[in-house]
């Protein structure tokens, strides 16, 4: 399933529907909405100017070490409460607090000598609920945008969990209807291909979501006991978030070239 066509919401909607059919249902509970949303009404189709440089980016599955961290509902609640208390707010979400904790932990363990070294965190944010009007729940397409956070290693480690989580909170808040529409309209005028070169050193990326219905998949032999992604979904610093098997818990796959320092 290619990200040029669909996103993680569609991926899990497909598996949810497949499992319903496998259990004998003659009607799936959430049919896909195949009507395409487009930011403008003309200039279709989009002509992408291919060049040898654009198509020479070859992805080779790297040899990375991997660890899966399990966070209980209670631990996540403590992180959320701490982050909000530090910033005197109530708007930092559970996931933002958890990812901030993870970013701090990784940067701290990397022992970066130059504390002014820039580190980055790439958040992948869905445009589905942010467009006005919002896209239908079952919209079958790719609605993901990337928001990149930049800070120094000293800021991430030293300014506290709340400060880091607040940077994530502000970055996600920038994903407004007007901002998303402008992003897409600009892309149509000057289309560019996404390459793996965006994954530079000292960069973390989070994909997937704890909101996906993973454990509701039952193909007739029982519900899942765990979820893991394949090798093509793993590069240095590219983390994948899944719901944990216990309600409210979260599992995070963390691959790095060298996990020994973590």
CATH class designation: Alpha Beta
| Percentage of residues assigned to helices | 25-40%
CATH level-four homologous superfamily name: Chloramphenicol acetyltransferase-like domain
Structural category is alpha/beta
Helix segment tally: 6
Query: What is the count of distinct domains?
Result: 1
The geometry reads as: globular
Total E-strand runs? 6
The largest sheet, given as strand count, sense and whether it forms a barrel, is: 6 strands, mixed
Task: List the secondary-structure elements in sequence, H or E.
Answer: HEHHEEHHHEEE
- What's the mean pLDDT score? 88
* Distance from first to last alpha carbon: 32 Å
CATH architecture: 2-Layer Sandwich
Key structural traits:
Chloramphenicol Acetyltransferase, Acetyltransferase, 6 helices, single chain, globular, 6 strands, alpha/beta, 262 residues
Q: What this model shows, in words?
A:
- The chain is α/β, with parallel strands linked by helices and 262 residues long.
- It has one domain (8-256): Chloramphenicol acetyltransferase-like domain (Chloramphenicol Acetyltransferase, 2-Layer Sandwich), CATH 3.30.559.10.
- The protein has helices spanning 8-22, 73-87, 94-110, 153-158, 161-173, 177-189, and strands at 65-71, 118-126, 144-152, 203-207, 238-243, 250-256.
- Strands 1-6-5-4-2-3 form a six-stranded mixed sheet.
- Helix 2 crosses helix 3 and helix 3 packs across helix 5 (161-173).
- The chain starts with 7 loop residues before the first helix and ends in a 6-residue tail after the last strand.
- The mean pLDDT is 88.
């Amino acid at each position: 399933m290619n990200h040029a066509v669909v996103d993680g919401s569609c991926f899990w909607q497909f598996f949810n529907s497949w499992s319903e059919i496998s259990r004998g249902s003659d009607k799936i509970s959430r049919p896909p909405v195949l009507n395409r949303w487009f930011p403008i009404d003309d200039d279709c189709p989009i002509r992408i100017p291919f060049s040898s440089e654009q198509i020479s980016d070859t992805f080779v599955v790297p040899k990375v070490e991997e660890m899966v961290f399990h966070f209980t509902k209670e631990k996540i609640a403590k992180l959320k409460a701490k982050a909000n208390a530090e910033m005197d707010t109530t708007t930092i979400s559970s996931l933002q607090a958890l990812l901030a904790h993870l970013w701090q932990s990784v940067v701290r363990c990397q022992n970066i000598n130059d504390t002014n070294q820039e580190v980055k965190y790439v958040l992948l944010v869905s445009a589905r609920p942010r467009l006005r009007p919002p896209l239908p729940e079952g919209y079958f397409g790719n609605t993901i945008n990337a928001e990149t956070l930049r800070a120094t290693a000293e800021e991430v480690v030293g300014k506290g969990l709340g400060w880091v989580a607040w940077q994530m909170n502000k970055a996600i808040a920038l994903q407004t209807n007007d901002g998303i529409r402008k992003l897409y309209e600009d892309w149509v005028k000057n289309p560019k291909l996404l390459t793996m070169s965006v994954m530079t050193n000292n960069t973390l990326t989070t994909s997937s979501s704890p909101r996906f219905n993973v454990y509701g998949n039952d193909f007739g032999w029982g519900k899942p006991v765990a979820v893991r992604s394949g090798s093509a979904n793993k590069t240095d610093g590219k983390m994948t978030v899944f719901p944990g098997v216990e309600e409210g818990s979260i599992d995070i796959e963390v691959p790095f070239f060298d996990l020994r320092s973590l």
